[in-house]
Design brief:
The protein has 186 residues and is an alpha+beta fold. It is built from three helices and six strands, in the order αααββββββ. A hairpin with a 2-residue loop joins strand 4 and strand 5. The chain is rod-shaped and about 110 Å long.
């Protein structure tokens, strides 16, 4: 019990003689006042208990709000981290295109070839960057951007005839669709 409340209850009984058995008007007046003071003490105790329950409910709500904030912050931080990684990788795609063109023309030699290989390996291992789009693959409009189309008797379904620029996927997200020439069945 709260010490202040206990002191108030004790002070409510000051001046009340519980053991004397006094008679007359004075005893009746004291008896009439005692229940009134007791009722006041009980009302104060009930009010204090109500305030305590409200304070506990407010604390519980505040704790729940804080836990929700922490959870949302962690989820948001992960989303921002992924967006930052995607932004860096998207910025490097033109560099990867130049490296691939140099490789196709035989200009990728020496230490530049080693550095280019390490860059591609790091992007693949650390960020999950995957190059896709090869001649002969089945055309998928979700993964490929058709820039040109031809008809061919050699294919039974739309297929990639020529890759103009490879596509890149970061995890499950397509960062850039492969730009291709499509061979349609004749």
């Amino acid at each position: 019990m709260d010490p202040a409340l206990a002191d108030e209850i004790e002070s409510a009984f000051d001046g009340v003689d519980l053991g004397s058995g006094a008679q007359g008007d004075a005893a009746e007046a004291g008896a009439a006042e005692a229940p009134s003071e007791l009722e006041q003490a009980r009302a104060q105790a009930a009010q204090a208990a109500d305030e305590l329950a409200r304070a506990r409910a407010d604390l519980y709500n505040l704790q729940q709000e804080y836990q929700g904030f922490v959870r949302r912050s962690r989820e948001s931080a992960a989303g921002h981290r992924e967006a930052g990684q995607a932004s860096v990788v998207e910025t490097l795609i033109p560099v990867l295109d130049e490296i691939e063109l140099a490789r196709q023309h035989g200009d990728l030699t020496g230490t530049f070839a080693t550095t280019a290989g390490k860059l591609e390996q790091i992007l693949a291992d650390k960020f999950g960057l995957v190059r896709f789009g090869e001649a002969g693959d089945v055309f998928d409009p979700k993964l490929h951007e058709a820039l040109m189309a031809t008809e061919s008797t050699e294919v039974t379904e739309p297929s990639i005839a020529l890759v103009l620029q490879p596509g890149y996927r970061l995890g499950e997200r397509v960062v850039r669709a492969a730009r291709v020439q499509v061979a349609n069945p004749a």
